[in-house]
Design a protein that fits this description.
Strand order of the largest sheet: 3-2-1-4-5-7-6
Number of helices: 18
Mean pLDDT: 79
Pfam families: Bac_transf, CoA_binding_3
Low-confidence stretches: 247-257
Family: Belongs to the bacterial sugar transferase family.
Shape: flat
Order of helices and strands: HHHHHHEHEEHEHEHEEHHEEHHEHEHHH
Strand content: 5-15%
Number of strands: 11
Protein name: Undecaprenyl-phosphate glucose phosphotransferase
Membrane topology: Multi-pass membrane protein
Structural class: alpha/beta
Keywords: Membrane, Transferase, Transmembrane, Transmembrane helix
């Protein structure tokens, strides 16, 4: 139910877009019937199937371009720019598609594609403008607002509360305040005790019970040390987390703020990688994994046989790991340790010159060959080529309690290699994990195809130099 409320703007807008694109196909066909019939004959389509296929094509373009991301009370100018970018890209691709037809002159093709782009752009831009205007009107009437809680009980929180109540176009209906330090509200803040609906430790149940959609962190300037604890507690991908920056943060330029009708807000851990990059990343994962597994299959079988012959036990080691959003999956690796190495000790860290590592396992680790079977995990979608390394549930539970923001690593797919792997040494202690977590969080906040390429290149160099452990 909470997810449905969160995405209702996306669902409503996408349905309207689809209907408008479909209608524009019918309208455009009436102006250029001969040309459109020639194109449909070339692709073995009829009038109806052609319209549906083109409409679906446009929906894919708009999704990949991020046109359905964060539509709630978005700026109408931002909507205009989104539609402009997506329609230009989609029309450019269509131009190259119809360019293969030699029965239509180049000049006619240009006229057709420009006219079609103008039709699509104007109708969709008008649709978005009307929808956002109506949405803003209802927000001014106090309807359709996001259910919001404010973290903090000081004067800053009270000011934020008053601003949200005074200006409904901010889109937030405040349900109450959350205590951070367990103390009663500041008497000078004007917040009454009955307006406090819980403490920070109870925030997960409060979010669930009250169907919270937005969380606004409004701490006092002298309570900045509580910010890490707040972010650690509020780690739900289905809830938008925003920070009300103080004057120092604004003028220092340390925080990138978004203006929501004049109210400066910092969104905590937004998605840095746009959908088109995510799509390319996933396609690249599948392509590379499939090609490597197919081309090296005989070699991989020989390694498996060598593992079996070198020491008793299976060739492939299976272990439960924690993946994206806390989902458990089974990871595959070539066995590099003695069979049942943790039977008596339980889950433990590997150490340098670990006596449990076999002779063959030492070289498999050194050359990172033991990780190759994880390409099967990549194909299945449990992992990616690049991302934070997946950890066992035992350690995830332990680290989550000891390392601030550790669980934010679970917001992305784990990877075979990652920024922490190329920048830090192998884990041998809790301090090592803390340092690697810093690198993982940096990657999550700055993820891009360019950064993935840099990590993969560094990994290849590490393998060639034999610096694995």
């Amino acid at each position: 139910m909470l997810k449905l409320k969160r995405y209702r703007e996306v669902i409503f807008t996408s349905i309207l877009d689809f209907l408008i694109i479909l209608a524009s196909w019918f309208v455009f066909h009436s102006f250029y019937p001969n040309t459109m019939n020639i194109l449909m004959q070339d692709f073995n389509l009829d009038f109806i199937s052609g319209g549906l296929l083109v409409s679906l094509y446009w929906m894919v373009i708009f999704v990949v371009m991020g046109s359905y991301k964060k539509l709630y009370l978005v700026s109408r100018l931002d909507e205009f720019i989104k539609v402009l970018k997506a329609s230009l890209l989609g029309s450019l691709i269509l131009f190259f598609i119809i360019n293969v037809n030699e029965r239509i002159s180049i000049s006619d093709q240009r006229v057709i594609i420009i006219a079609y782009w103008a039709t699509i752009f104007m109708l969709l831009a008008l649709n978005r403008f009307v929808v956002r205007t109506v949405q803003r009107y209802y927000a001014q009437q106090g309807k359709g607002l996001h259910r919001t809680i404010i973290v903090g009980t000081g004067q800053t929180a009270k000011v934020a509360y008053d601003d949200l109540n005074r200006n409904k176009t901010l889109g937030m209906q405040v349900l109450g305040f959350i205590q951070v330090n367990g103390k009663a509200p500041d008497p000078d803040s004007g917040i009454e005790q009955e307006e406090v609906i819980g403490r920070l430790n109870d925030i997960e149940s409060i979010i669930q019970d009250r169907q919270v959609q937005d969380i606004l962190v409004a701490l006092e300037p002298d309570r900045r040390q509580d910010l890490v604890e707040v972010i650690s507690k509020v780690d739900s991908p289905d809830v938008s987390l925003k920070l009300l920056p103080d004057f120092y943060q604004l003028v220092s330029g340390l925080s990138k703020t978004n203006q929501i009708f004049g109210m400066p807000l910092v969104e905590i851990s937004p998605e840095p990688m746009p959908l088109w990059e995510k799509t390319i990343k996933r396609a690249f994962d599948i392509l590379v994994s499939a090609v490597v597994l197919v081309l090296t299959f005989p070699f991989l079988v020989m390694i498996g046989l060598a593992v079996r012959l070198s020491s008793p036990g299976p060739a492939i080691y299976r272990q439960e790991r924690v993946g994206r959003n806390g989902r458990l999956f089974t990871i595959y690796k070539y066995r590099t340790m003695l069979n049942d190495a943790e039977r008596h000790s339980g889950p433990t860290w590997a150490t340098k010159d670990d006596p449990r590592v076999t002779g063959l396992g030492y070289w498999l680790r050194k050359l990172r060959i033991d990780e190759v079977p994880q390409l099967l995990n990549v194909l299945k979608g449990d992992m990616s080529l690049v991302g934070p390394r997946p950890e066992r549930p035992h350690f995830v539970e332990q680290f989550s309690q000891q390392i601030p923001l550790y669980t934010r690593r679970l917001r992305v797919r784990p990877g075979i290699t990652g920024w922490a792997q190329v920048k830090w040494k192998y884990d041998t202690s809790l301090d090592d994990v803390k340092e690697k977590t810093k690198f993982d969080l940096f990657y999550i906040e700055n993820a891009s195809l360019r950064m993935d390429a840099k990590i993969l290149i560094n990994t290849v160099i590490t393998i060639l130099k034999g610096k694995g452990q």
